[in-house]
Amino acid sequence: MTSVKLTCTSCGQINRVAGERLEQRPKCGICGEPLDDGKVRELDAKSHDKAIRSDDLPLLVDYWAPWCGPCRMMAPEFAKAAQALAPDVRCVKLNTQDHPDVASRAKIMGIPALVLYDRGREVARLAGARPAAQIADFVRQNLAGRM
Ligand SMILES: [Zn+2]
């Protein structure tokens, strides 16, 4: 039995979840929020860095801002992709207007931008608004052999 580390997107606690429990929508041991239910959640600077550094599951981050029309247009597509990719990959959002320092560290030049991380490093990135199927394909192609 292998367990995976997952950072709670609500409280930032690192949880250990048994691999076979991922399908059963595990919850955070501290705050009770779901850890991996296919819903897109918003990260802050702390949970962003922690999840990239610590998580054992791939993480797809949508860097966006409220003023960005294409970002808002892509949001429902990103939500669909998140459902399709769960529980193997977690999909989250980072508001670059609230967290410009995080965006600059992630070298985000334009939004929306999707960056796929796996075990502490960037695997690939995709710029511009995309439909759900393209987002899911992008992730699967770049994680070939991992899922
Ligand atoms: Zn929590």
Descriptive overview:
The protein is of the alpha/beta class and 147 residues long. It has a single domain, classed as Glutaredoxin. Helix content is 30%, strand content 26%. It has four helices and seven strands. The strands form two sheets. A five-stranded mixed beta sheet has the order 3-5-4-6-7, with helices on both faces. β4, α2 and β5 form a beta-alpha-beta unit. The longest helix has 17 residues. The radius of gyration is 14 Å and the shape is globular. The protein starts with a strand and ends in a 5-residue tail after the last helix. Bound molecules: zinc ion.
Q: Main attributes?
A:
147 residues; alpha/beta; Glutaredoxin; five-stranded mixed sheet; two-stranded antiparallel ribbon; 4 helices; 7 strands; 30% helix; 26% strand; binds zinc ion; Thioredoxin; transport
What is the percentage of strand-forming residues? 25-35%
Q: What is the CATH architecture annotation?
A: 3-Layer(aba) Sandwich
pLDDT < 50 stretches: none
Q: Major sheet: order of its strands?
A: 3-5-4-6-7
Mean pLDDT: 96
* CATH class category name: Alpha Beta
End-to-end distance: 17 Å
Radius of gyration, in angstroms, nearest whole number: 14 Å
Number of strand elements = 7
Largest sheet: 5 strands, mixed
- Morphology: globular
- Per CATH, the superfamily is Glutaredoxin
Tell me the number of structural domains.
1
Number of helices: 4
